[in-house]
Amino acid sequence: MAEIKPKFIEAASGAELVILTRAEFDDIMSRLTEAEEDADDIAVYDACKAEMARNANASLPAEVSAMILKGDRLLRALRKWRGMTQNALASKTGIGQGYLSDLESGRRIGSTELHARLAAALEIDQQWLARLEGDKRPQ
């Protein structure tokens, strides 16, 4: 990032003009482009998040889908996506870590009420967890 040292002059019309070196101008334009790209990324993220909030059946996040494709079960993938340990999620939902392990492995399914607590703890729509009942494939 170059230090910008503008020079100001007064034009014949009385308007104040700014003089920059080419390097200073290029630096400013680069910063503007990066800021616009960041704003575009934020707008896309916000739109996707709003769509997910409107549509409970929205697709799972790509990271979660990728983990499932690599062999993780849904609940484990969601927990890892949220950066939580089994102990942390179990604590937030009022169940034991062993029971959560059984849920993640598919040995147990859990009740609708438990799915609601898991969804709240994971900050996801509960309908995503409706897929747990179909997640009985062997590991």
Terminal CA distance reads 52 Å
Strand content: 5-15%
Structural class: mainly alpha
CATH-wise, what's the superfamily of the largest domain? Answer: lambda repressor-like DNA-binding domains
Number of strands: 2
Mean pLDDT: 85
Rg, alpha carbons: 26 Å
The CATH C-level name of the largest domain is Mainly Alpha
Low-pLDDT parts are none
Helix content: 55-70%
Task: Indicate the topology.
Layout: E1 7-10, E2 16-19, H1 22-54, H2 62-69, H3 74-81, H4 86-93, H5 97-105, H6 112-122
Helix pairs in contact: 2-3, 4-5
Question: What can you see in these coordinates?
Answer:
This protein is mostly helical. The protein has 2 domains: 7-54; 62-134, 434 Repressor (Amino-terminal Domain). The protein is built from 6 helices and 2 strands. It has helices at residues 22-54, 62-69, 74-81, 86-93, 97-105, 112-122; strands spanning 7-10, 16-19. Strands 1-2 form a two-stranded antiparallel sheet. A hairpin with a 5-residue loop joins strand 1 (7-10) and strand 2.
How is this structure best summarized?
The chain is mostly helical and 139 residues long. The protein has helices at residues 22-54, 62-69, 74-81, 86-93, 97-105, 112-122, and strands spanning 7-10, 16-19. It has two domains: 7-54; 62-134, lambda repressor-like DNA-binding domains (434 Repressor (Amino-terminal Domain), Orthogonal Bundle).
